Amino acid sequence: MNILLVEDEARIANFVGAGLREQGFHVDHCDNGNDGLAFATARQYDVIVLDIMVPGKDGLAILKSLRRGGSATPVILLTARNELEDRVEGLNLGADDYIPKPFFVEELVARIHAVLRRVCGERQNVLEVGEIRLDRISRDVSCCGQTLRLTGREFNLLEYLMRSPGRVFTRTQILEHVWGYDFDPSTNIVDACIQRIRKKIDRNGASWIESVRGVGYRFRKPGSGA
Known about the structure:
The protein is α/β, with parallel strands linked by helices. The protein has helices at about 10-20, 35-40, 60-70, 85-90, 105-125, 150-160, 170-180, 190-200; strands spanning about 1-5, 25-30, 45-50, 75-80, 95-100, 125-130, 130-135, 140-145, 145-150, 170, 210, 215-220.
C-alpha cells in the first residue's frame, strides 16, 4: 500500500517512515505543504498522513483543497494541537481520523488499517460511474453533485445497470430482477421506467443509459461517448 507522509519535523518523519516501511508500506515523504499537495494530486495513495503544522500550505488547507477537488483518499491528521476546535475543523473538512503527538507508530499503523477497512466497506456500498453516484445504504443518487429524486423501482433499475457498465441487459432480465415478473412481450413497463430515469440523470444531451436495438439496455462506460 502507498502512503504519503507530509511532516516537516525530520525526527518524526524518519521514525514514522521507517516504522511504516517495516510494516510493508511504500512511503513517499514531503516536508512542506506545497510539495505535499502536489504529490497528493499527482499520484495515487491509499492513505495520506498529514501534519497540520507544516511550512507552506498547512495541513487543513491541503485537506480542503483535496476535498474540493473531489479526492476521496483517506486522510489521517497528525497534530501537536489538542484543542477541540482544531480536531472538529479537520473532521468537518473531511479528515478520516486524527492522532495527536506524541504517538506510537504501532498506533498509527492500527489507525491506517482501521481507516482502510472502513473506506473499503463504504466503497462496496457505493457505485460511482462517471458523474453518477449511487449509495446502496442511504439509497441516495446524485449526478454532478446534485441529488436526484428516484422512485424505488427507478433506483433498483439504475442500480442493476450500474453494477456492470457496458454490459447489455435484456428487457426480460430487467423485468425479472426489478419487478419479479415473467416477461410479457406486450408490456412497455421497462421502457417507460428507463425514460423516466433518463430525464432525471441525463445532462448536456448525453444519455447514460443506452438502448441496444432488439436486445435491451446498458449503462454507458465513462469515455465511451454519448
